[in-house]
Structures are given as structure tokens and as C-alpha cells.
Amino acid sequence: MGLVGLIIIGAAAGFLATRLMQLQMGTLETIGIGIVGALIGGLLIRFLLAITGLMAGLVGAVLGAMLLLWILGQIRK
Fold first, then answer.
1. How far apart are CA 40 and CA 14, in angstroms?
2. Where are the domains of the chain?
3. Could you give the CA distance from residue 49 to residue 24 in angstroms, rounded to a whole number?
4. Phi and psi for 24 in degrees, rounded to 5?
5. Are the C-beta atoms of residues 33 and 39 closer than 8 Å to each other?
6. Distance between CA 67 and CA 50 in Å, rounded?
7. What does the pLDDT look like over 26-60, one tens digit per residue?
């Protein structure tokens, strides 16, 4: 997956994660969270479950973004 694909998946994952966690963030923050979440979640899902493909990447990205948002929320408290 190239850089453009990572940005697209990251944007979608960040959007879904912020909506699922009911958080309001700016566009760049959402994309950034999604990209980092895509890296974290995508690698974890692929490593642990050996799942491949775009859908697995999106699921992993959303889970990773949600994990990152939770960690940031704990740090901000």
C-alpha cells in the first residue's frame, strides 16, 4: 500500500474512530490519528491474525486509532 492509500485508509479510520468514541477533532488531527492507528492496528491485526487485504487494514486501522485516542484521553486527564 502506497502513501496515498495510507492517507485514505488513515482518514477513514480516524473519522470512524472519532465518531465511535464520540470525539470532536479537526481534520488534520483526525487524519493523523487515523494514519498512526493504521500503522499500529494494521500491523497488529496482520501479525496476530495473519489477515490480509484492504478490509483487514481498515479494521485494524480503526482499532488502532481507537486505542491511540484512548491513550491520549488517559494522558490528558
1. 13
2. 3-76
3. 31
4. -105, 120
5. no
6. 20
7. 888 888 888 887 777 767 766 666 655 556 667 77
DSSP the chain: --HHHHHHHHHHHHHHHHHHTT----HHHHHHHHHHHHHHHHHHHHHHH---SHHHHHHHHHHHHHHHHHHHHHHH-
The model carries a pTM of: 0.54
Distant-in-sequence, close-in-space partners of 66: CB < 8 Å, separation ≥ 6: 17, 20, 21, 37
- Measure CA of the first residue to CA of the last residue in the chain; give whole Å: 36
CB-CB contact of 65 with 34 (8 Å): yes
> Measured between alpha carbons, how far is 37 from 43 in angstroms, rounded to an integer?
10
